[in-house]
Structure formats: C-alpha cells, structure tokens
C-alpha cells in the first residue's frame, strides 16, 4: 500500500500531513515517507485543531462572563428595564422568556412524544413512517428565520393572534418538534426488548406495556430532549422577534406581546443602547445554557449507567 | 370497552404524528403563497438575478444577497470543515478519556450558546481585529465566515464523530493487525468507511451556516452590494429578512417572503442531499 503518496483533495489533513515530509525527505516524486513521521504530523495537526476549538470557546465564554458578571446583581434580575433598557434590569424579559418557553414546551411535548411513540411502537416501517421521518428531518434543517416568517404569516396574521406570547411560543413549538421527536424515539428504541416481552408475557396489553414498561424506562432520554429544546428556545432570537414582538412591557396574558432575553440582548447590542446591560444579559443567557447543559449531561450519565 | 381502550392510543399517536408532519406542509404552503405573487410580478429571472434591491422604488433583485450567502458560507466551510473533521477524529480516536469528558460537553455548550452572543463577540473581537490588521471596515465577509465557522463546528464534529464511532471495530483492528500505523488506519480505512456520515455532517453544517441570521447581522455590515474582496461588507438572504422585516409592508414585505422562498428551497435541497447520502446503502 503506498497510500502516503496518493493525494486526495477531499481530505485536507491527509494532504497536509503527507506532503510536507515528502519534500523534506527526498526530491524523488514518489518517495515513501516514513509512516511514523506522518503519524506524528497528523497527530500534531489534530491536537492543535482540538486545542484551537477549546481556546476559542473559552475566549468567548470568559470574555462575556468577565464583562457581564459584574453587572448581574439582585436589582438587575428583579427590576424592569427602564428607558428602553438603558437603565433598570431585565425582569420583564425573564418573565417573557419563561412564558414563551412554557407555551412552546407544553405544545411541543405531547406532539413530539406522541409522534415518537407512533414511530417506535405503534407502526411498522413503511411509506408513512418514511414520510414522517423525512418531514421531521427536513423540519430540523429549516433555519429559524424561516420559522419566524412562517410564525408571522400563520400565527400572527392568519390566526390573528398578533405579536404575542402565544404566537412566539407556538412558533418555537414547531421549531423544537423535530428535536423532541428524534430524542424521544431514540430513547424509546433503546429500551431493552425484554421489558416489553416480560410485560406481554404477564398478560399486559400493548397500551399497558407502552405506558408501564416502556415509557418509564425511556423517560430520562425523553427528558433530555425536552431540556435540550428549552435551551434552544431560550437562545432563539430570529423566530421570536418576528412573532412575539419586542415590547418591554410586562406580559399580562398569553395574548400580550413580549420581549425575550435573547431578543433584549440583541436589541441592546445592535442598537448600542447599553453595552453594560447587554453584557449582563449575555452572561445571564450563557449561565442559563450552561446549567441546562449540566442537567442534560447528568441525565444522560444516569441514563447510560442505568442501561448498562 | 377494553378493546376501545386498546385501540385509542394508537389512533391518538397517529393523529399526533400526522399533525406534527403537517407543520412542514403548512410552512411550505404559507411561505410560498405569500412570496410567490411578487416573484410572478417581478419575474423569476429578474428577482433571482436582479442586481438592484430598492424596495422603495419597487426594484427587487436579490442576486447580491445570494452571492453574499454563498461567499460567507463558503468561507465558513473552508475554515470550519477541516477544523471540525480534525476535532471529530480527535474525539473518536486520539483524545484521552478524561479530555474527552471535557471536550464533548464543551462542544455541546458551543452548540447551545445563543447565536446573538456569537455575533456580539464577533463585533467586539473579530471585527476590530480585521479592521486593524487587514484594513477595510472590519464588518466583512471574513468576519461573518469566522463566526459561522465557529457556529457550525458542533454540527460537523458531533455527526462525523458518531459516524466514526459507529464503524465496526474489526475495520480498525484488521488494519492495525496488518501493520498500518494509527493514522494510516484512520485515513485509509476509517475515513473512507465513514465517508457518508462525514459528508452529511458537512452538508448539514453548510445548511446551518446559510440559515444563520442574528449572528451575521452583527458582523457582516449588511451593505447590498457585490463585494470586491473578502474584507468588504455584504448582506445575506437571511439578514435581508432579519433587518427589513421589522418595518416592511406591502410589496416590500412580500419580497421578503419571496427571499424566504429562495432560502427555503436552498435549505431543502441541502437537506435532501444529506438525507440521501446518509440513508443510501453503503457499498
């Protein structure tokens, strides 16, 4: 095998790794390079790529936290924004975020889990399941701004819900549906067959088996998907700004417009209203996402440990 | 009675599945119905290849934005794909176990950070760097490409890592047993075998880059013009919608829905491609 000298444009690290030593070692065009040297160079490139990514991630997080953490105090969390967000805190945007996310989760979870159970337990593979899977995959790839356009056209205008908590929540519900379907289906499929067999052999019906044997074991995986989706909702800006509006008033019902934290941050930063408060809001968002990630990982660890 | 109770859940689950997927149909219908009239009025060729975007004068040509989207995404892919694939190899093959335990959640965190935060960081960090070191306004294709490269990393890394890990163990063992080095095994046995997964990862990453809005609004400069270098500002399809949707009305608004159609079609083609590649039986 003289793979070292073959160049393949599709694989960048390979050409990098094999080209350099070749010119160093000899001027013969098809000289075999010592595989140990290639190995070392490839390793070095791969390690440095990984290191680079870690450095960039840390740079982003530390930068935002250093600038933002000093801004966050009790007042920042509990006071409403004044003067377009220049003064005061972020309280009404926290409430707005909570309401929008709650609507999204309450709507998306039953549809998502129901679809997952249908795909995993209640049907055989066929044309219909292929269509469902295809749709879910396609929905997962649609950009959030397109969800925003759809939400604006359908919920805000067509259903006449206006810019509101409800419109925003429903739009996000459609957006996170594919995530919930996929993670729930995976969790259901990984429930060992023996659980179902034991339930059936004890005379359990299909529904009893689903409810009492499969669902409890899949619950952790399902919860993981839901928490992940909460994170996506909190982080979303484009879809929400077009459907929930951007008013700073405290939302009083599902039909009042609101501004979420991510939108608030975006407006503060883009319009240069208050860099200080922008940093504070960004730090708050990162902390929230961090907590969500920790919870998800703890869930996955317990899930994996339990299934071992 | 008990028979009824047995039948109902199946029907309910099916109804839920049906309504879930009808979302895709609804999105398609609503975007197309609202955007198509303006494309019909302006003419498809003039809309897609028109060079002037002047909504107040009724001129709707989105070619500079299509070009903007393509250039920024291409830049993001050039930076992000090699780094992403290297990281996935790192995670699947080289990372010591404790490091893997840090690296993987870190990538998840990277995926979870709101896109506006990336944009903000780019605006304060990358943009001044480009302006001072390379010249130009700083708000540029390059800045957008760098930010998007970081944002598509989690997609590329996680999907290609999964496809590398999913390979049967004996591929690697057989190759090592034949005396190939670890790196030779990775690139001449494992990478070709995991190719479809890696290609799908790249396509999905590119899809994410094209679809990203809020982060790039902050760093691209958003000028509707054909750029002359990577240091020039551009506007993409997504940012066009994101910026103007707030105040547009009438035909202008319809033209933004039509921009959405073009974006939607591009993304659907990429999705189909990725799905085709991953579901195709391996040779």
Describe this protein's structure.
The complex is a heterodimer of chains A (308) and B (283). Chain A is mainly alpha-helical and 308 residues long. Chain A has two domains: 3-71, no CATH class; 77-307, MetI-like fold, CATH 1.10.3720. Chain A is built from twelve helices and two strands. Chain A has helices at residues 12-25, 35-68, 74-78, 91-121, 127-141, 144-158, 165-189, 193-201, 206-235, 238-241, 261-270, 275-307, and strands at 81-82, 87-88. Chain A has a two-stranded antiparallel ribbon. In chain A, helix 7 crosses helix 9. Chain B is mostly helical and 283 residues long. Chain B has a single domain (65-279), classed as MetI-like (MetI-like fold, Orthogonal Bundle). Chain B contains twelve helices and two strands, in the order H-H-E-E-H-H-H-H-H-H-H-H-H-H. Chain B is globular, with a radius of gyration of 23 Å. The relative contact order of chain B is 0.15. Chains A and B meet through helix 1, helix 2, helix 4, helix 5 and helix 6 of A and helix 1, helix 3, helix 4, helix 5 and helix 8 of B.
Question: Summed up, what is this model?
Answer:
In chain A, 73% of the residues lie in helices and 1% in strands. With 308 residues, chain A is mainly alpha-helical.
Task: List key phrases describing it.
heterodimer; A: 308 residues; mainly alpha; MetI-like fold; 2 domains; two-stranded antiparallel sheet; 12 helices; disordered N terminus; B: 283 residues; 78% helix
